[in-house]
Queue: 2 jobs
Job 1
Amino acid sequence: MYLNGKVAIVTGSSRGIGRSIALALAQQGADILVNYTKGETEAKAVANEIEALGRKGIIFKADVSIAEEAVNMVAAAMEHFGRLDILVNNAGITRDNLIPRIKDEDWDLVLSVNLKGAFNCIKAAVRPMLKARWGRIINITSVIGVFGNPGQANYAASKAGLIGLTKSVAKEVGSRNITVNAVAPGFISTDMTEGLSEETKKKLLAGIPLGRLGGPEEVASVVAFLAGESGSYITGQVIMVDGGMAM
Ligand code: NAP
């Protein structure tokens, strides 16, 4: 229970990887703000699971792409728990298409949620961390942000941007004992990958040395490692959790 007494915000934690991260941090003793936009019932279920682990879990509806909502979310965590130690920027979306067919609004939306959303949350959350001289910021990027992928230019740009954001903020706040890292999942079994065609899945699997999709809990365990004292001398890094896909 190395996160006893710590408080975490996990964006987009009503389902998928975010849900697993929220539960992994709670298992280590942290109290959690579960953030969502649409899935209130799912978010409540996650908060109930957190409470069943003996921790406090609150839900908060906020679209991370809107700065005011990110500010309100951080204020809610501070009001409810009196502190904020860990921010996990996990909320993310895809709007895949080949470049000539990407609509302007789909470019803007993906960049707004995946990249500006992380910026909004970091900007709001870093204040209490700077004051406390302790903090952990973990941004969920993707192997696609490192290697690119046809049909995912908007998503790849947002996830590559997240890596630049991670490194810059890591350099900016390192002297205050705040670490900032990125975790880059490969092909993880969630709603996001559910919609892929059997043919695409087959092709993707052929490129994974471990020969299978990852589970969300296999990403969450790495985030939990970075969130604790175990990750105290790791900052500005991109940790691949991809079954060897992106070697
Ligand atoms: P998912 O199952 O589609 O879940 C996305 C989560 O983000 C949901 O909780 C959703 O909440 C929330 N969300 C969406 N838009 C939001 C917004 N504007 N503000 C706040 N929350 C928002 O996705 P996932 O597969 O777990 O992916 C989680 C993260 O891992 C994403 O950043 C994704 O890019 C990254 N990733 C995933 C994979 C993979 O293979 N699955 C691989 C690499 C990276 P609502 O339902 O309430 O809207």
Job 2
Amino acid sequence: METEVKLTKLASCAGCGAKVGAGTLVHLLEGFRTHTDPRLIVGYDKSDDASVYVLDDKTALVQTTDFFPPIVDDPFLYGQIAAANALSDVYAMGGEPRLALNIMCIPDSMDKETVQEILRGGYDKAYEAGAIITGGHTIHGAEPIYGLAVSGFVHPDKVLTNSGAKPGDVLILTKPLGIGILTTALKAGIVPDVDEQQAADLEKRIFAQMATLNRAARDVMVRYPVHSCTDITGFALLGHSFEMAQGSGVTIHIETARVPYHKEAAACAEMGLIPAGAYRNRDYAEHGVLVRGDISRSMQDILYDPQTSGGLMMAVPKECASALLDELHEAVPAAARIGYVTEPEEAAIILE
Ligand code: CO
Ligand code: CO
Ligand code: CO
């Protein structure tokens, strides 16, 4: 549906591109003191996707929240994408979402119908995930914001953190990159070499991708002895890889020729159409990245591009990688092997 005021026009930055940069966040949280609790097995000190608190031998509680300004103009779709993105952090821990709360900020100019469509989109996606939205909190503000606080469950022995990658692992990514670059270019109406119809098709494709739950990928993943997982969102493939490499004490090798991405994003990057978040991600991770070989600037820009509701990246023992990938392909056709893990080498990440 169309709204009178375009949703994305109300937002100064879109989707996960609005995320405070990883470098800034590290700085802001520096020296912040927290309490420990033996039941809190993933908490504040770890830059992981969600916190995990052990309830009993068989159950741990997974909690997370994500919210952002509109990334699309259709309010229902915006609600779906924001919810899929928030739910993803539970999937990234190997868990299953069960309960959720709405978090919302509405400008005075927003009508009731638009608010309801956003909420309906979020509810629809949470329901698809097997979770139920039980309430929430709404405030007034200059820009619209929507997202969820999500609670889910995971077996305490099956928690997947972003710091468990081991030398010898193969890296698998489940959604193609380029979302930040393409949503920015589409909003401005300047995707090179595409006519109106192709631009409309591209928009449809990437909107559908963002609204797709990481549930199917998670359901396949938990049937294998995967070592580590994170979802690729605002900090981009390289920002999240940097966290995984540092947390795991390993070097991550990205085989750039294997990385799935939307071709149109490369054309945009070549023209310098890069969202601000990509520069923040480069600032954060670049000192840990070694470029080995001839890798184009536009490919590097795609690797630093902030993703909204991106895919899962898993570190998988080599022995089971191809079986996992085969099974994954049935549910998630774009899934691909994108690299491998070694003992620490001269950089946290090596692009080859
Ligand atoms: Co995450
Ligand atoms: Co998150
Ligand atoms: Co995780």
